[in-house]
Recover the amino acids of this structure.
């Protein structure tokens, strides 16, 4: 073994710790502790304003990842997120919100956070250093899956263990990082880098790096759901009506998509058991619910595809 590397388990080599750009001092905020409060906020805001541009540079690679995720989900696979600390919390947030927003089944997007549920509200700092914990959390990953490791520095041992195990299982592996020289890049088939640079407070990657992670994960899951036909135009037609607010939103979406009045839309939703996509196909095609359900089934749940052969010229 080279003196420049250390082993943290079978097949996992973690390079020695080096200061990534996310951990360097930021000359633009050197006086942040002596300026007035509003200026502190302006300095933070100015740094935040740079994030979207860096995320935009990562989109070509992210598009490839989205296509792999779409293939995976269509084939019945799972998308696993792995992260520690703030990175893990971003992963948990995205995986949780895909379900109600797009009507996705639980267990398709799965977030693994170093330290488990306890680490969501309380920092469990040593969990991120545990390579074997990452490998253990990735034990259920299969060759049908996509494994996404999230690490601002690109060297988190927990993520290294997870990506190593996922790669051995034959899964597609992805690293999301803010470090262009991420040491774990060699464990990933796709490396998505948003080079957010030094934080306003040195090393506090809960700031710009975490913002980039949220943007990237939101974009990944949302684009995948769009490609899987879980929107109609830019409307959330797969939305689950699990509470009063969401049921109201379903009704609003149905009115916007069809142009029908509220009473008609409300009645159709009730007739379709609260299934927004089914109600939408019925109203736009004139099909009865049973036939509309078959059309949706034949089109993998895509409203636009289901309508392709059933909308007459005088309908929208």
């Amino acid at each position: 073994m080279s003196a420049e590397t250390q082993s943290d388990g079978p097949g996992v080599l973690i390079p020695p710790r080096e200061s990534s750009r996310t951990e360097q001092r930021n000359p633009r905020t050197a006086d942040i502790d002596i300026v007035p409060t509003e200026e502190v906020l302006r300095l933070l805001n100015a740094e935040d304003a740079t994030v979207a541009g860096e995320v935009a540079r990562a989109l070509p690679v992210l598009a490839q990842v989205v296509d792999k995720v779409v293939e995976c989900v269509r084939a019945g696979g799972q998308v696993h997120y792995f992260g520690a600390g703030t990175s893990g919390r971003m992963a948990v947030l995205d995986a949780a919100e895909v379900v109600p927003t797009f009507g996705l089944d639980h267990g398709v997007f799965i977030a693994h956070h170093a330290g488990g549920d306890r680490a969501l509200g309380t920092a469990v700092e040593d969990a991120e250093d545990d390579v074997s914990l990452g490998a253990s959390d990735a034990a259920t990953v299969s060759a049908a899956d996509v494994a996404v490791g999230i690490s601002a520095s690109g060297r988190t041992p927990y993520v290294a263990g997870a990506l190593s195990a996922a790669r051995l299982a034959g899964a597609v592996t992805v690293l999301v990082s803010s470090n262009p020289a991420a040491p774990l890049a060699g464990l990933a088939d796709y490396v998505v880098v948003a080079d957010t640079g030094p934080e306003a407070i040195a090393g506090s990657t809960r700031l710009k790096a975490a913002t980039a992670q949220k943007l990237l994960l939101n974009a990944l899951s949302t684009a995948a759901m769009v490609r899987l036909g879980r929107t109609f135009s830019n409307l959330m037609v797969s939305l689950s009506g699990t509470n009063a607010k969401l049921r109201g939103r379903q009704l609003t979406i149905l009115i916007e998509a069809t142009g029908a009045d509220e009473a008609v839309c409300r009645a159709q939703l009730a007739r379709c058991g609260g299934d927004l996509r089914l109600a939408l196909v019925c109203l736009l095609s004139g099909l009865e619910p049973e036939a509309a359900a078959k059309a949706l089934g034949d089109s993998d749940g895509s409203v636009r595809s289901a309508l392709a052969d059933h909308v007459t010229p005088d309908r929208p």
Observations:
- The chain has two domains: 6-227, 244-308.
- The two ends are 67 Å apart (CA to CA).
- Residues 208-227 form the longest helix (20 residues).
